[in-house]
Amino acid sequence: MIECNGPVRARVRTCIVQALVVFTLTASVRGLQPANCTQPGPAGLAAAPCEQASAGQMAALYAGVFLMCVSAAGARFNQATMGADQFDAAADRDVFFNWYFIVLYVSAVLGSTVIVYVQDTVSWQLGFGLAGVASVVGLAALLLGARYYRRPAAQGSPFTGMARVIVAATRKRKLNVAAPEERKFYHGRRSDDNDGKASADDDTALAPSDRFSFLNRAAVITDGDVDAADGAVVRPWRICTVRQVEEFKAVLRILPLWSAAIFLSISIGVQINFTILQALAMDRALGRFTVPAGSFFVSSLLSVVVFLGIIDRVLLPLWRRLTGGHTPRPLQRIGAGHVLTVVSMASSAALERWRITTVRAHGEEGNPAWVSPLSALWLVLPFALSGVGEALHFPAQVTLYYQEFPPPLKNTATGMVALIVALGFYLSTAFVDVVRRTTSWLPDNMNASRLENLYWLLAVLVAINFIYYLICAKLYKYQNIGK
């Protein structure tokens, strides 16, 4: 059995392969599947209740889900950091992040169309098997290129250093730091490694910055904190270096900007779920082919891919030519993504208003099965706008976090976007539940709903969130970008 251990760069890829092997087995091995439901017998005899899956069968299924979640969390954005580490110039890293997201979204499109089609029309075994083969090829490519990668040395967990800053500042909360010239700050020893121990700053005369000054207590030397002979840390949970304090401040400075992106993900999650329901209540015919309702989301993925290519090959070169070589800052691109998300929510509201007008014109508000003659292809427009917004703000966020976070936190920086997506989709469910409980907008009958009100509410909230983002962006000062 393949184990999820070994070199870190291959571990998560190995887990992906193992997860897909488990999924393939659950679809292939009869003992890992619940019994088929009995079909109704002759003469109208009722079918027997479907047999529930056993504990062992559910354990096998959830083992695959668990491995897939762990491996996806470890692979997707750590690979982004690993790829960016191969470049020295910030412009090259920007290009890499754009193309990383292009490949990521292209793979999502293929998975949502080709793999799903194979599973629906041929077999689940073949669908999971193809995904497994693709993962094995990716793992082989990763290992074959390992000798050429630039691999920074591991430095231990960055969260330990941040925890030490919090604990040390709390334990010294009664210490007066109003007069820094009367205090001696700890800068570490130049002979120590940066592996969780003290490390010397380049400028040992540098005092901590004034922002979040309550954290400066963590770097103030008090009796018994360090060895008087060689400057070694004696009580590591009472003293930190100035650099560790400043690195923690860098994280705190960027958190408001990060929080502003969460509501973008909430609105996108709500839009995805309800657009599928809208598609089911609209004409999905495309010639002789009926487009599956769940496939409309692919238009958002495709718009991300297309627009990222346009950004990289057309818009950025044109912008540099017009501005004398300047590149749009990450905060500018993120702000443009916010604006397009507002427009996308407003267009979804306008389209739903159009759909419900056709329902009322035919007097079918009380018929949940009635399908509007309005073409569901109109739903591509809001999704396309949302996709263009994602193409602007997601890669720009990765660039911002990667550039602005301290070196020990660069892996965490790129994972911040994954956390935004996860929080947004979980909170979108809670948001819809609150709307259901407090309004009558979302009954089970889509033809009697007031879904347009939900979209307008989202548009207003995303606009307010954009104002919050503008305030955060105005107050934020770049630490590394542009230097």
Structure write-up:
- This protein is an all-alpha fold and 483 residues long.
- The protein has 3 domains: 8-37 and 49-148, no CATH class; 158-250, no CATH class; 261-475, MFS general substrate transporter like domains (Growth Hormone, Chain: A, Up-down Bundle), CATH 1.20.1250.
- 61% of the residues lie in helices and 2% in strands.
- It has 12 helices and 4 strands, in the order αααααααβββααβααα.
- Strands 1-4 form a two-stranded parallel ribbon.
- The radius of gyration is 27 Å and the shape is globular.
- The chain starts with 7 loop residues before the first helix and ends in an 8-residue tail after the last helix.
Layout of helices and strands, plus pairs?
Blueprint: H1 8-28, H2 55-84, H3 90-121, H4 124-144, H5 158-171, H6 242-260, H7 262-280, E1 282-283, E2 285-286, E3 289-290, H8 298-323, H9 330-361, E4 372-375, H10 380-404, H11 410-438, H12 451-475
Parallel strand pairs: 1-4
Antiparallel strand pairs: 2-3
Helix pairs in contact: 1-2, 1-4, 2-3, 2-11, 3-4, 3-8, 3-10, 7-9, 7-11, 7-12, 8-10, 9-10, 9-12, 10-11
